[in-house]
Amino acid sequence: MTFPRYVSLLLLCAGAVACSGSAEQISPGGDDPPGGDDSAPPASSVPIPPAPAQFSCDANAVPADLPLPRLSRTQLANSLRFAIARALPNEADAIWTKIEPVFARYPTDQRTPAPGDLKGGYSRLDQSIQQSQVDVMYDLGKTVAQELTSSDARRNALLGSCASDSQTGNDRACLETFIRGWGSRVLRYPLPTAEVTVFADIAGATPVDRAAVADVITTLLSSPWFLYRVEHGTNASQSVSPLSAFELASRLSYQFWQAPPDDALWAAATNGSLLTASGFTAELNRMMQSPQLRSSLHEFVSEWLRLEELPSLVALRNDPVYQAFVGAEMPTDAARTAMFEDVQLSAWQTVVSGGSVSDFLRDRRSYTADPFLASIYDVPVWNGSGPAPVIPSQNRGGLLTRAALLATGTASTRPIHKGYLVRNALLCQQVGAPPPNASDRPPKPTDTLTTRQVVTQLTSGGSCGGCHNHTINPPGFVLEGFDALGRERSVERLFDPQGHVTTAPSVDTVAEMRVYDAEWRVVSNAAELTKMLDDSQLFESCVARHYFRFSHARVESTERDGCLLSEMETLARSGAPMSDMLKAVANHPTFKQRSFQ
Amino acid sequence: MSRTPVFRVDRRMFLRGAGGAVLALPLLPSLLSPSEAKAQTAQRPKCFVHFRTPHGAIFGANMWPADPALTQSLFYADHDVRRGTLAAPVNASGDAVISRVLTARSTVLTPTLVSKMNILRGLDFPLYMGHNFGAALGYYDFDKQRPDSPRATIDQVMAYSPAFYPSVASVRNRSVAIAASGTSSGSWGYSTAGVRSSGVASSSISGTESSLALFDTLLAGTGSSGSSRAPVVDKILESYRRLRNGSGRLSAEDKTRLDQHIDAVAELQRRLGTTSTGCQVPSRPTTDNLSLRNSGSFAGDPAKNVEYFRLINEVLAVAMNCGVCRIATISIDENNQNLTFTTRAPQGEDWHNNVVHPATVAGANQDLVVQFNQVFFSQVFLDLVSRFERFSNGAGGTLLDDSLVAWAQENGNTPHFSFSVPVVTAGSAGGALKAGSYCDYRNITRKVSGDSSTGSEGNSLWAGLLYNQWLGTALQAMGIPTTEWSEPDHPGYGWKASYQSGYEYFFTNKGFSSAQAYPSSMWQKTGELLPFLAP
C-alpha cells in the first residue's frame, strides 16, 4: 500500500512531540476509554447525563466594565448612516454611496480568539485606538459634512427656513437649534446649553454659512460622544453607579441593533420610562422582536463559528477531481453566501419563533433561496416568508450538518477541522496546539484510501493519538456521512488525478467519542452526535460563554462574571427561548450600571 | 507587462518605462533649486522600508550563493561566522545572478546596486513560531497569536524616536503600514503611541492597501478646497479635552483611553499643519492598485501582481524623497492580496497548503516558491530600491545611500521553521552599515533536526545568530539610541525568547539544547551591529 508522501512523513514524526491535549471539560491526552480497553463505551441510545454547570455565581464579585467602549466598525457605519438619514432622509442612500469609499479606509476591527481558542474572536473585542482610525474619522466627518452642506438646498433642509431667510439676526439661533436637535441625537444625549454653545461657536461669525455648518458637523462627528459610548453614570459617590436613561438607551441599541437609539427608544429615555422596570422591558422586547436584531445576531453567529473560513467553492473549478466530485452543476459564489445565510437565518428564526438554544442546534429547516443549496438539502427554495421547508433526511441533525460547516471547497472532507470545530466552538473544549511537524494540509483521500483512513493513518500513531483518537477525530468521522459540499452520502467516491472514480467504499461514520469526564459513547451518525451534544448541555453552556464575549466585548472572568454567566447558562440549558438568554444580558443588574472601580 | 500610467506627466515630472523596470522620476534632482538641494544636504534624513513576504520556504540552495562565495571567517559569539563579497555575475541571458531567487535583469541589478546590498543568512527567531505576521519586525507572534512578551516593532520604535524625527514639521505620517484589509500589518506600536511604559497595543497598526489612499495621505495638498476656513481639528481636540477634564465622572481607564485618543488627534493636527516645502508633489494618480487587484484577471497574472506594488512604490519613493514620511512597512499576504507573482492563483489556502508545504522537496512546488520570490525581488523590491537610487541626496549620493530597505520573510528555508530567516537589504543608512556582503551567520557545527515533514531540506537546518541582533542592527543604523530599545535581560532589542519545551527536540535530537544553540554569550552580543556590517 502506498501512502501519500506526507502521510508517511507524519507517521514518522508523530512521536517526536507530545500531542498535548487539554480541555476544560475533558482530561488531557488519554488514549483509552475509562476502565481500560476491555470496557466498550455504551451506545448512543444511553443518554449522556448533563455535564456539571460550567459557571457559578459569587454574589460579592463585581464585574469589570469595558472602559470607554469604542464603536465597532459596523456600529460606526450604522451611526454615520443614522446621522445622514436624520439630516437628509430622502438623500441618505445617495450620500452614503459617496461616503463609502472613505469609509472603506476605516480600519477593520481585528479578531483575536480567547486564549487557547481558535474559533470565535469577535470584532467587538478590538478596542484598540489607532492613529488611522482618528485620521480616517476626520476625513469621514469632513466628507459627511461637505455632503450635507453641498448646496443651499441641503443646508436649508438641515437648518430650516431660518437659514435662508433674509434675517441674519436669527442665524445663530438657527444653528443652535440644529445642534440641539440633530447633534443631540447623533451624540446620543441631550446636549446641554454649554455644549451647544461650544459647538455653535465653531461656526464663528457666519453661523449658517455652508462651510461654517460643515465645520460644526465635522467636529460633532469626530467628537468622543460620537465615536465612543461615554458613560458617566448618575451617582458620583458610589463605586458602581446607575446609568442615565440615555446611556442605557445607547447600551441597549448598540448591543442588540448595533446602531444608535431610534425614535421610540430615545423617547423612552427622554420621558424616563426606560428607567422603569416596565418601560425597560417594553423597549427590550420591542428590540428583540425587531428585524434590526439580525444585525447583531448574524454577526455573533458568523464570528462565533468563523463562517468566513468556508473556502471558495469555485476556486478549483478547473481541477478535474473537483469537477468530477461536484458533478454537472458547479456551485457559485452565491451558493457560498447562501450557506452562511442558512446558518444565520436558523439562529434568527430560532429567536423570533421562541425556540431554545437546543432548538437552534437541532433545527432541521432549510433557509435558502439558492437552488444549489436547496438541492443539497433536497428541499424547495424558500422565499423568506412562511415556514421554511424541513430537510427530509433524518440524518441531517441540525447545525452540525448545515452545509456551511461541512463544505471545504475541495473534493475531500476535513474530519480534523470539523472535529476541532465541534470541540472548540460548540463545546468550548480546548485542545492543545498541534506539534510543529503537523501538516495543516487537509488530508486527502487517495485513489484507494478513504478520507477517514488517511486521517487515521496520519494521527493515530504516537502521542498524536492522545488528542486525535478520542477527542478531535471522532466528531469529524461521524460527519463523514456528508461530502465536501455537504451532500449526504453513504459511499465515498475516490478519484484518480484525472477525475475518474477508482472506487467507492462505504463511509464509516461510527466512532467512540468521549464527551466529558468519563462519559463515552459509540456514535454512528450526525443525528446521534447532535443529540449527544444536546444531552450533555455543554453546547448550551458554550453558547452562553460565547454570547457573553460578544455582548460584553471582552473575554469573561469566570470569577467576576460568574453570576451573569450562570444565569445565561441556566436559561440556555433550561429550554427557555434563546431570546431569553440574549435578554438576560440586558436584564442583569450590571447592564444598567457602570463600575468605576 | 501592463504599464498603468499613474502620475500625470507635466513639465517637472515624467514617467517612463525602461527595460524591465518602471522608473518614475517625479522629482529629478536636477530640478531642485540650489536652496532645495542645500536643505537636503543639511538634513540627510534616513528612511526605513521593510517588506515582509509570506512563508519563506526557499531552499538554501535557491536563496543563497554557493559556499565558495564565503571567503572570510570570524569567530563571533560562540561560533565562526562567514562572509564574502556580494557578486552578481551576468549570465548569457543578461540576468545578474546572486542566486536563483536573487536574480534580476543586469540593467536593474547593476554592480553599483549590488555593492549597496547585503544578504544575511543564519538569523533565527529564537522560538518556534509556525506562521507569524510581526516577527520579522520584532513582534514574535507564535502562530499569529499574541506573544507571551510582546514588543513594539522596530518601525514604531523608530517612528516615535526624536532621534529619527528630530523635527516632524514636514512629516505627514511618521510611518505607514501597507497591508491588505484583513491582514495584520505586522507592525505594532505602544498603547499610547511612542510611550514604551504604556505597553504594546492590543492590535497591530492598521494597514493601508490602496495606493491612491496612500497618495492622498502622504502627498495630496492641504487647503486645496478653496475654503478660507482653518481645519477644525483643534476643535475636535478641544472636545476630547473637555470630556477628559470635565466634571463628568470617568474611570481612570476611561481617562487613559481618552489620553490615547487625544494623542492621536494631536498627531492628526500636527500632520494637517505640515508643509512640504522644497518638494514638488506630482499630480494625483489616475489609477488605484485596488482597482487593479479587483479586476478579474489579477490572480495568476504576475505582471499585474507586480504592478499592484509598483503603484505603491511610486508613491512611497516620492513621499520619502519629499520627507513627508520616512518609514514604511509592507506586509504581503498571498491570500488577501490574491497574488503569487506566478501564473498559479492563490485560490484561498491552496497556495499555502498545496504549494508551499509540499515545496519541502525539490520539484514543481519549490519552483513556484522560487518564482514567487524571484519576481518579488527583481520587480518589486528592486523597483523601490531603484527609485531610491535615482534620487540625489544632495551630497553626492542617493536617497538609497541614506536609507535602509530590507526584505525579510515569514519562515526560514522550510515552512513553519524559524532557522535562517533570510534578510536582504539595500542602502547603508547614511553610512551606518557596510554594504556589499553575503554574510552567513550559521553555526555549521550546530546542525539542528528538521524532521521528516521538512522534506529533503530538513537536512539543511542550522542554528545561527539571533534575529534580535538584526533588529537591533537596523535600529542602530537608523540612529535610534539603545536607551530607547535595549532590554533589562540583554543589551539588544526585543523579547529574550526561548524555545518551547515541545520543540526542544529540534536540538536534543542532535545532542545539544536550544540554550546551547543560543547561549548567553550570544544574547550579550545583541546590542552590537551584526558581524561584518560595521563600517
Write the layout of secondary structure elements.
The complex is a heterodimer of chains A (597) and B (535).
Chain A: H1 5-13, H2 73-87, H3 92-103, H4 131-148, H5 152-159, H6 171-187, H7 193-201, H8 210-222, H9 224-227, E1 240-242, H10 245-256, H11 263-270, H12 277-289, H13 293-305, H14 320-326, H15 333-352, H16 357-362, H17 371-377, H18 415-426, H19 451-459, H20 464-478, E2 494-495, E3 501-503, E4 511-516, E5 519-523, H21 526-536, H22 538-552, H23 562-574, H24 578-587, E6 593-595
Antiparallel strand pairs in A: 1-6, 2-3, 4-5
Helix pairs in contact in A: 1-19, 2-3, 3-4, 4-8, 6-7, 6-8, 10-11, 12-24, 13-15, 18-20, 19-20, 22-23, 23-24
Chain B: E1 14-18, E2 21-25, H1 34-43, E3 47-53, H2 60-63, E4 72-76, E5 79-85, E6 95-97, E7 103-105, H3 111-115, E8 117-121, E9 123-124, H4 154-159, E10 176-178, H5 211-218, H6 233-245, H7 252-272, H8 289-293, H9 302-322, E11 327-331, H10 334-337, H11 350-356, H12 364-389, E12 403-409, E13 423-426, E14 437-440, E15 465-466, H13 467-477, E16 486-487, E17 490-493, H14 505-508, H15 514-517, H16 520-523
Parallel strand pairs in B: 3-11, 3-12, 8-14, 9-15, 10-11
Antiparallel strand pairs in B: 1-2, 4-5, 5-14, 6-7, 8-13, 12-13, 16-17
The DSSP helix count of chain B reads 16
Q: Ends of chain B: how far apart?
A: 40 Å
Considering residues with a beta carbon less than 8 A from a beta carbon on another chain, report the largest interface and each chain's count: A-B, 66 and 69 residues
- Poorly predicted ranges of chain B (pLDDT <50, ≥5 residues)? 1-42, 222-226
* Rg of chain B, nearest Å: 23 Å
Total beta-strand segments of chain B: 17
Separation, N- and C-terminal Cα atoms of chain A? 66 Å
**Main sheet strand line-up of chain B:** 4-5-14-8-13-12-3-11-10
Oligomer: heterodimer
